[in-house]
Amino acid sequence: MNVFYDLHLHSCLSPCADDDMTPGNLCGMAKLAGLQAIALTDHNTCGNVRVFCSYAKRLGLVGVPGMELTTREEIHVVCLFPSCEDAERFGDYAYGKLPDIPNNTEVFGNQILTGIEDEPRGVEPRLLFGAADIGIYEVAPLVQAYNGVAFPAHIDRGAFSLLAILGLYDPSLGFSFTERPGVGLPHIENSDAHWLGGIPDAANCLNIPALTAQGVIDGLKAL
Length: 223
Ligand SMILES: [Zn+2]
Ligand SMILES: [Zn+2]
What we know:
single chain; alpha/beta; binds zinc ion
């Protein structure tokens, strides 16, 4: 079945996202926008995915737990998982590869962890905007080992993108699709919204075999 999707969205846990981008607000806005399958992809963390998936389910949306990983080369790669357990295990791994630099909220913004009622339950002390010590060539097979799928984010952007950093696409990187066109692979389109008003009305469809996070991953793999 075809569903309207947006698989690259940030919550208030990303330092650069608005504080009112709570998982509950994010899911509510996605529902209003007519989306049916959405993914939470905070920078280098899966800390809010469980609350996000809970709200998505309450609203009848397919919630996909994920992360936007910053590789050693400072390339952003979106990683999606079939379950919160897989996402959190990968999150723990990536967290261990992040430099232990404290967040400076004055410079980078707040990193708010939310509870099951969408309330603030704490802050992430480590700066999430750094680069994890995971190389771009490691990502695709690594994420697959956690049952997920990965794709290079906003490849045509001038910073933090595969083409900006590497200058070309090497097929041995192992990705089967990208966000935005440009390297001859199938591509998808996402908003990368960091604020509630940045979630556009539903426009892009994906054919998925089941209305689950696994179904979304299977649909992406079949592109
Ligand atoms: Zn990015
Ligand atoms: Zn992003």
